[in-house]
Specification:
The protein contains 7 helices and 4 strands; from the N terminus they run H-H-E-E-H-E-E-H-H-H-H. The protein starts with a helix and ends with a helix. With about 220 residues, it is mainly alpha-helical. It has 2 domains: about 140 residues, no CATH class; about 50 residues. Strand 3 and strand 4 form a beta hairpin. It is elongated, with a radius of gyration of 25 Å. A two-stranded antiparallel ribbon has the order 1-2.
């Protein structure tokens, strides 16, 4: 929706309207990157207990030395071990998808507050050239975010397939435990322990995957 409004803003020379749309787009981006699921910030990486975006307004963004300085997410993404041979990084870091976007917002805010601003009323030719260039940068950044969402959708499908496979294994092994009879007791005890261990591992894997923060969020 924010991207659509910005595209509409490109068709006007009303500076006041354009700045209103820029502020709304900033708020939408900040709110999205501050999303929580079950109390955890899903774009915070391994630092899930802290809002990854410190700027709450364009003024805060202007005050930062650089756009990247408004992010305080971890440098590592969350990861989940699917089996002995496969560990997947999940989630997206706010700084990875948001830095270019915030850089454009910062440049617009600084221009608006500078000698060539403000964007108020009909734009001058110089203002229009500048704002159109930055609007295109913002739209490109939104497209990049959409690509990240699509990539995580593919990851979700892969992980959900593995979850289903693990659950099927757990069901099979549960049946195997129930079918042990009329065999040597020592052998039965060994088979039972091996099967129970496998069930426990499958159950733990299923539980871990179910708690991966981005998967429920992207459904």
């Amino acid at each position: 929706e924010s991207a659509t409004q910005l595209r509409l803003a490109l068709t006007t020379t009303d500076g006041t309207y354009i700045m209103d749309q820029v502020r709304e787009a900033f708020d939408s981006a900040r709110n999205a990157l501050s999303t929580q699921y079950s109390g955890a910030y899903i774009f915070g990486g391994t630092r899930a207990d802290t809002n990854p975006v410190t700027a709450t307004s364009l003024a805060d963004l202007m005050a930062a030395p650089a756009a990247g300085d408004v992010f305080q997410n971890a440098s590592r993404r969350t990861a989940v071990k699917l089996d002995d041979n496969l560990t997947l990084e999940t989630g997206v870091l706010a700084s990875d998808v948001g830095t270019d976007l915030m850089a454009s917002f910062k440049r617009i805010a600084e221009y608006n507050a500078g000698a060539n601003g403000p964007f108020n009323g009909t734009l001058t030719d110089q203002q229009q050239t500048f704002i159109q260039g930055e609007m295109q940068n913002i739209l490109a950044a939104f497209d990049g975010i959409n690509a990240q969402v699509a990539a995580n959708g593919a990851l979700q499908n892969r992980v959900e397939g593995l979850v289903k496979s693990q659950q099927q294994k757990a069901d099979y092994l549960s049946q195997l435990i129930g079918s042990i009879e009329d065999v040597d007791m020592a052998e039965a005890a060994t088979r039972l322990q091996q099967a129970q261990n496998a069930v426990d591992v499958s159950a733990l894997t299923f539980s871990t995957l179910s708690q991966v923060s981005l998967l429920p969020f992207l459904r």
